[in-house]
From TrEMBL:
<dbReference type="InterPro" id="IPR000873">
    <property type="entry name" value="AMP-dep_synth/lig_dom"/>
</dbReference>
<dbReference type="InterPro" id="IPR028154">
    <property type="entry name" value="AMP-dep_Lig_C"/>
</dbReference>
<feature type="domain" description="AMP-dependent synthetase/ligase">
    <location>
        <begin position="114"/>
        <end position="269"/>
    </location>
</feature>
<protein>
    <submittedName>
        <fullName>Phenylacetate-CoA ligase</fullName>
    </submittedName>
</protein>
<dbReference type="InterPro" id="IPR042099">
    <property type="entry name" value="ANL_N_sf"/>
</dbReference>
<feature type="region of interest" description="Disordered">
    <location>
        <begin position="1"/>
        <end position="24"/>
    </location>
</feature>
<keyword id="KW-0436">Ligase</keyword>
<feature type="domain" description="AMP-dependent ligase C-terminal">
    <location>
        <begin position="368"/>
        <end position="472"/>
    </location>
</feature>
<dbReference type="Pfam" id="PF14535">
    <property type="entry name" value="AMP-binding_C_2"/>
</dbReference>
<dbReference type="Pfam" id="PF00501">
    <property type="entry name" value="AMP-binding"/>
</dbReference>
<dbReference type="GO" id="GO:0016874">
    <property type="term" value="F:ligase activity"/>
</dbReference>
<dbReference type="InterPro" id="IPR045851">
    <property type="entry name" value="AMP-bd_C_sf"/>
</dbReference>
Amino acid sequence: MTSSHTIASGPVAGTTDQRPATRRYWDEARETCDPADRERRILERMQHQLRYVYEELPFYRRHYDRHGFRPDAVQSLADFTAKVPVITKKMLVEDQREHPPFGSYTKDFGAGGIARIHGSSGTSGTPTMYAVSRGDWDRAADVHAMAQWCAGVRPDDLVQIGFPFGLFFGGWGVLQGVERIGASVFPLGVTDSEKHIEMIRTLGSTVFSATPSYCIHLLSVAERMGVDLRNSSVRHVLVGGEPGGSLPGTRRIIEEGWGATVADAGSTSEMYPFQTSVGCEAGTGTHLITDEVYTEVVDRNDHNVAISVGERGAVIYTHLWRESQPMIRFAPGDETYLDDTPCVCGRTYPRMPEGVLGRLDDMLVIRGANIYPSAIETALRDIPELGPEFRIHVHTEGALDEIEVHAEVSAGTHEAWQAVDDDRRAEAQAALVGRAEAVLRQRLGIRIVFEPLTPGTLEPTTFKARRVIDARGVRW
């Protein structure tokens, strides 16, 4: 696969790139490129990829033929949105079942041509297998490095990773970027939470990376251990793997609790390199590296209909450079909105001001109102008496759907309640319930019953949060 255009070639595979720590950008020309010039390059790559997948990959040829689409129909970015049919995870799973092990949306790279094989967790059936060619794997390292540099990682850092190292791509992408930058890495992975706290203190780790839920969980663990993470060596926290890291309340809790800056990153395993969106140190949201993975936000009901910048809609991703299992207009089912105004950091990539807000199929319809779990989380994070864990319960009473939120109070709040008599404790609990229900009603527009819980009641979140229990028959 060749192209007349090259972006960020990067160093030789397996090497580090010891750029001066004082440099503001990893690749200044690319990151500060004039948006109009970048769009021209993006269109070139789109047209190249459309020809490639139609000519080389049977999955796409069948899909496009069914929709009456031909690659030469795309002469603009607007054409791309309006004319190219989307693909979904369900389609990929079915194709792999018919064409094992990697599906007909990749080509045979021959002996030694595949660098890494990863996959989904397979919680709903057979895992989806992802094969990354050597060329694609090498390129991804430089993209991850650029994203992590934007987040503040430098060659003199020690990065401690709290993502798992298995089928899931998560921790591996962090590892790739850190090694390309030339920083030290401690890939501890998923282990007991106390061990992470102990090793931060022992090694003096300066960057910590995990899901936002786990970073908040570690605040409670540290408090039980008598450790104040605000005084630790960690100065940057890199989060991903789930929505929330860019939500103002969640971000504030992590930043204040850890005494560190927070950068949110990531997308989906299908879209590896997944660190093609990353929060910058300016705190303005997550930059989208659109000349690597082109990102659209479109009408949630019709993915071929464009919407205005700033309007909430469905996320659509496209690989502009991957040869192995390229995703062209992949619809993961996520929701967000965009901002293309200039960022104070100087990068000209568009941004998701609050990151990925959540999944479209996570939306709960309660008494005619559209309720997103991320909106409930945002409201709860603004109530200082509450701890990190909460659950959303939905059930039916008579003909009406009802929603309740159960949240643990913080250890400090619980101790204060235990120090007073029963009457004063009851008053304090009632006051918290009233204030929480008022905040939830104000933010979401419907009545939501709130119940405070003792710390430790709920199972702690050690990887991706699963906080919605729908007794109507669906559980997230």
